[in-house]
Design brief:
single chain; mainly alpha; 6 helices; elongated
Length: 161
């Protein structure tokens, strides 16, 4: 199998894996949705904790608000947007939005990885084309000087190395 075909197969496998991984798991229960949303919302009273992890009164109030929005039939994105548009602003969300300037948080790391793999592929291809290095005459002379005189030719009359 040629290398080009292997790269195509690898690309197809990667695209299929990403497509399968990006699919939603289907409808979940209201309680699962509550904890999923609460896991991405910052507790306004606690430092660095999500609403799901905190027992603070403000976290409990936000969980109650999320629960009420779920019971009202709002989508997860709508609930997050309502929280971000509320008194706390977008800082209440632990994950930055995926649009606008904040999208760079999601795009830049992926772009860096793609560029790095591309650079490695080009470097490997270049190294493969160069073949093994051969020592020059100067290299051989340096090695001979470092090894000292030939023990089989103590007077230095030999043909050299």
């Amino acid at each position: 199998m040629s290398r080009r075909l292997l790269w195509v197969v690898l690309g197809v496998v990667a695209v299929v894996a990403l497509a399968i991984g990006s699919r939603g798991a289907g409808p979940s229960s209201a309680e699962e949705r509550l904890w999923s949303i609460a896991d991405g919302v910052r507790c306004p009273q606690c430092s660095g904790q999500s609403v799901a992890d905190s027992d603070a009164p403000a976290a409990k109030a936000l969980r109650d608000q999320i629960r009420a929005d779920i019971e009202a039939g709002r989508s997860d994105d709508t609930i997050r947007a309502r929280l971000a548009d509320g008194a706390y602003g977008e800082d209440i969300l632990l994950n930055p939005p995926r649009s606008g300037f904040a999208a760079l948080v999601w795009i830049v790391p992926v772009a860096v990885v793609v560029v790095a793999f591309g650079g490695l592929a080009l470097a490997f291809r270049r190294w493969e084309r160069q073949g093994p290095a051969t020592p020059s005459r100067r290299d051989r002379e340096l090695v001979a000087a470092a090894l000292g005189p030939d023990p089989d030719d103590p007077h230095g009359e030999g043909a050299g190395r």
